[in-house]
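Bug #77: duplicate submission created two jobs. Keeping one. Sequence:
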Amino acid sequence: MTSDTISTLKSISPSTYFELSKCALKVVYNSNKPTDAITLPSHVKSYLGTITHKMLESIQLGHITNDNLMEKWYENVKEIQQHLYESGNTNLKIDSQQGYADSFSKIKSYFTKISSKSSMFRNRLNYDKFTEKLLVTDDGRMKGKVDLIKIFDSEVHIYDYKTGQIFDHYNNNGVFLAAEIKQEYKDQMMLYKALYYRSKDFGKNSKKQVKLFLIDHQFNNHELNDVTNEECDELYNNAINKLDEVNRIIEDEEYEKLAKPEQNNCKYCVYRPVCGVYQSWKKNNMDSYPYDLLSVTIRSIFQKFGGKQLVIQVEDDSKIFAIRNIDKNLIDSELTTGDKLNIYNLKPTKYPLKYDITPYSKFFKI
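Kept job's structure:
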């Protein structure tokens, strides 16, 4: 992406506030939406999380029954799989990845749990329920979609589903001390509360008490206690100030100030192929994860199994690398000796300078 294709952020959401502190450039790229052809596939956990969220919404809306539970699950899987195929990621099969069966099993458990609760408490509680409710401030500078809102006579409950681990575990020399909800999730929920009170045509000027709940991967509720309105307001102001700061940097075209290239920030980032800051950092950190080979030239190509698989040798200024088990269907165009490539998401082998292909691997001619 070039400077003339990057625009300022129009708004910030509770879920992206924490991401701005990790790597604001990633948020900017996501807002400007590079085409799938020049980005990498997400980790399968991300796709399973998306499917799980859609299923949870359908269950809350009453669209799921015992008869169509599996059918709806497969429909969501098929939709994302088709998107992967259309964007050139034909090697990643969601239903064959680790965690797939466990995700479906958890959805079945949640459906059973919700069904039993619905029959037990039907007509005993009176509240309005909203799923995937978009909250927007009057000025449009903060907006966010809430998984579930329940509005009672005297209070409001805001829920957010988390398919991953929601706790940070603290210890001292290996001795377990405490488990606390991750700070990024606390911030997100506090911003939802601030957003609810500022949301036009919905919660604005509401006098009702707002309670915050996270729903974990086993569908247990965890309430965030001792969260004051003053703390939420302060965090909201910090978020808007951060939005202004990021936009000033974008206007000055000093994009490197937005990036924080390091292993934890970059390892799952789908924008590595368009991020010049990452590529400069990676060239000085070739031995660290993620395992990408940048600006390498094809030295030789070998065919295996009747030409269905390839082994290629590539070289940079000082080393020769071998990449094995390449399915020809993974390559968008024919490779020839002398082609210059960026290759992403490889798997190191026990042999030095030799890599295997993974379901997430992608090749780009440069």
